[in-house]
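User: I'm writing a tutorial on reading structure tokens. Could you give me a worked example: one chain, its sequence, then its tokens, then a sentence or two explaining what the tokens reveal?
Assistant: Sure. Here is the example chain.
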Amino acid sequence: MNRLFNRFSFQPLTLGLVAAGLLTLGGLGLLATRSQAADAADPAKPGAATAAKPSLTVTTIQAQSGVLPIKLAANGSVAAWQEASVGTEVNGLRVQELHAAVGDSVRKGQVLATFAAESVQADVALARAAVSEAQANAAEALANADRARAVQGTGALSAQQVNQYLTAELTAKARVESAKAQLDAQLLRLKHTQLLAPDNGIISSRTASVGSVVGAGTEMFKLIRQGRLEWRGEVTSAELGRITVGTHVVVTSPTGAQVKGRVRMLAPTVDAATRNGLVYVDLAGAVAGGKTAPGAFKPGMYARGEFELGSSGALTVPQTAVVVRDGFSYVYRVGADNRIAQLKVQTGRVVGDQIEVQSGVKPEDKLVATGGSFLSEGDLVKVVEAPKAVSKPNMPAAPVNAAPAASK
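And here are its predicted structure tokens:
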């Protein structure tokens, strides 16, 4: 009886011990599972790199040293080098015919307009007749003076009469000269009935019309002398000191055409309102376009110019390696563990497909060449070899910002 009691009293204890053992084994299994997951997520532990998947396959590049041009960009207007005002020198004549229009290329001495010359021709005829009359009177006075001189001292004529003949001779000669001068004046008026171009150039303006009667000094045409143009760039007073006479400039028109020029003169004053000064640049080879040869540059056109101030050394990376976020520029460095580090950089000049990195990058850093916009800090990437080497920036091109120092 006691033995049976003892058998049934120990059975619950055994069942409890068995259940406790099962619970202990389950907890240990759960801990082991969690430990394996943590090991896979931790890149410092062995086997973690094989468990984590890279978020992107990238190629790497390194910043390269090179020499970049230093350029100063400015805007300004294209204007005529010199513009001549062509007007009439005669008064009260009617415009008979116009021989030039706006845009025409003309040569020095070419007839631009003619005036009705009938009245002037009549005045010329009168002046010629006056000269003939004066010459006839002068011949008679000369004969009388010769006779007076022949009998002078003989008493045939008094001294007063001799002086009168001699004075009449001189007066007649003076009247001949006066008549000839009047004839020359009328011939000059006749010559001015044709309006001539004072120089080679392009007609930029015409205010005359056929049939109008114009006064002396009235402007009828404007002429761009020799068709030469200049660019007047506006730069700040601080930048004005970096430019010297003779500095080379590349000017680009709104159509994309480019022409080289050279600084001819710097403005002696700075505008008090804008604090900008003018730089006058002769555009070599740029001529005002006419009807027969339209040019890419025209007076009054707004154009952009770049002053070539020298060159300096710089670190450059491909533009594809730079990502702009929230107004700042970043590059992405690949570490030894293939993890991404986001670096904030300061960019500068642009040369072809390369961009200058002024700070934030070292030459030995391995940077993501493309696709940086898809990456974030700490991302794991797979690095593959680039298909071809990135060329060095050795050709000049337009900068974004000019560096503060230059080496001539």
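What the tokens reveal: Residues 1-14, 25-41, 43-50, 393-408 have pLDDT under 50 and may be disordered. The two ends are 119 Å apart (CA to CA).
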